[in-house]
Amino acid sequence: MLILLFLAVPLTASALAVIFPALGCYLQLIVPAGLIPAAIYLYGYGTVAHSTGLYVGGVAIPFVADRFSAIMIATTAIVALGANWFAFQTTKQRFYPALTLMLIAGVNGALLTADLFNFFVFIEVMLLPSYGLLAMQGGRDRLRAGRVFVLVNLSASTLLLAGVAFLYGQVGTANLAALAGAGEVAPIPLAIIVIALCAKAGTFPVHTWLPRTYPVTSASVMGLFSGLHTKVAVYMLFRIWVVVFDMDARWNWLIITVCVASMLIGGFGGLGEHTLRRIIGYQMVNGMPFILIVFAFCTHDPQRALAAGIMYALHHMVTIGSLVLTSGAVEEAYGTDRLKKLSGLQEREPLTAFVFAAGAFSIVGFPPLSGIVGKVLVVFEAARAEQYFVIAIIIIASFGALLSMLRAYREAFWGAPMKNAPREARVGALIAPGAALIAVSFAMFFGAGFVFDWVQGAAASLLDVATYSEAVLGPDPIGVV
């Protein structure tokens, strides 16, 4: 029953936020703040499961938490807390807290379910408030981007549902534990599901929607989407790769091809953009392949390879969140994040300049920030797999990211002070959420050994398919492939 609290508490808080709007402003902070220690507590339990409806394993609706899902819940809660903290200062929309709390409930459900159909259901629970968050802070550009967001996600969700339906029709179950090792039994339905998840994660060649839509939303919404939407898809890709495909090395060439292309496009794509958040949008595209390419390195030491990917995912969530909220603070204070309208902010806003520079260095992979830890681990695994071409691409893509972020910093923070900036315009306390998230990145670097031990535990839990299956299916399962 402990697992269900991760769903019940945000949903109840969402309902309360609708009835009592003043209370909702605080619930949007209290709930994600409470989820962080709760997820850490859950991590200590190992693998636990709860089947609703009192049916036998294979028929019941399963929820399962292991160390991998627990560490993802904790990190998504950290990002959600930062985004909602920023919204607390900038957003006066009555239903914003209720929608964000419903989004958090959907994320937790997607991270805890052990059934692909119910994963689709929780994806829809996530999308419903997301559409509201896009629409409530209107404007022509945001509504136009909202249409693209709705079209892409509806298409991907339809594809996901079709894949799950075909899978169920072919093998008679959508239960992940029952599908263990079934990658060869139903390759076409599983391929459809993977394509849908890759579209939601924003990987090549279905990436173009992400840098077009996310930066047009408000900064708090972009912060939420960057840390929650894409990473839920990544989470399920990890789960399917390990449990269903059993890390089949025959797919390594395809994984490397897609990830290498995504790295290059994301690394250099930002050079053609003219706003801070659009540049950051391409760094989101750039980060996904660093997380997913470790699938191709699982032949030699799968635990270390998966741990490298998880470590990079945690780094990417907090760092992108910091960059988005820092850029949003600049936009709130000065009315724009267009590079040609900003200049000399380093003199006016030294703390903001420092936080943005730290986030940029972390994305590129400079110490003393979490980016260097994640990238070094991925490079080590590439070297272990003798994929030296991938290492060369990582260096080139990182150079592209460096050029993109240097251009953004040079245009916005260097140069002569802005002549048309209002005297009273200051970022002030708006920088606090972004600064807090970049502080987490610093902490991940200086506590890298401790964090990596946690990540290794998450990877080991992910690989322990036998324990996962026993927890989900029980001693007398039915419907196992």
Description of the molecule:
- This protein is an all-alpha fold and 481 residues long.
- The protein has one domain (2-473).
- 73% of the residues lie in helices and 2% in strands.
- The chain is built from 19 helices and two strands.
- It has helices at 2-19, 21-43, 67-90, 96-112, 116-136, 140-171, 187-201, 209-213, 219-244, 252-269, 276-292, 302-334, 345-348, 350-364, 370-384, 388-413, 432-446, 448-463, 465-473, and strands at 48-52, 61-65.
- A two-stranded antiparallel ribbon has the order 1-2.
- Helix 2 runs antiparallel to helix 3 (67-90), helix 2 (21-43) runs parallel beside helix 4 and helix 4 runs antiparallel to helix 5.
- The longest helix has 33 residues, at 302-334.
- The radius of gyration is 21 Å and the shape is globular.
In short:
The chain has one domain.
SSE diagram, text form:
Blueprint: H1 2-19, H2 21-43, E1 48-52, E2 61-65, H3 67-90, H4 96-112, H5 116-136, H6 140-171, H7 187-201, H8 209-213, H9 219-244, H10 252-269, H11 276-292, H12 302-334, H13 345-348, H14 350-364, H15 370-384, H16 388-413, H17 432-446, H18 448-463, H19 465-473
Antiparallel strand pairs: 1-2
Helix pairs in contact: 1-2, 1-4, 2-3, 2-4, 3-4, 3-9, 3-12, 3-17, 3-18, 4-5, 4-9, 5-6, 6-7, 7-9, 9-11, 9-12, 10-11, 10-16, 11-12, 11-16, 12-14, 12-15, 12-17, 12-18, 14-16, 14-17, 15-17
